[in-house]
Design brief:
Blueprint lengths: L7 H7 L3 H18 L3 H13 L6
Helix pairs in contact: 2-3
């Protein structure tokens, strides 16, 4: 499976306020980090979850 590049514009279409986007992404990343996920893959997973609307604002 080829890795998809996620742009900031795509993320801002889901959450228009960049400060809210940072807060939501940080909270989701913290949850994955505490579960023991690899640091290098956490943000990719978080951004995918935001685009798929699995993360609530």
């Amino acid at each position: 499976m080829k890795k998809r590049h996620i742009t900031v514009d795509e993320l801002l279409n889901k959450i228009p306020n960049k400060y809210e986007l940072a807060i939501v992404a940080g909270k989701a990343a913290r949850e994955l980090f505490l579960k023991g996920e690899e640091k290098s893959k956490i943000m990719d997973e978080v951004f995918e979850e935001i685009l798929e609307e699995k993360v609530k604002v």
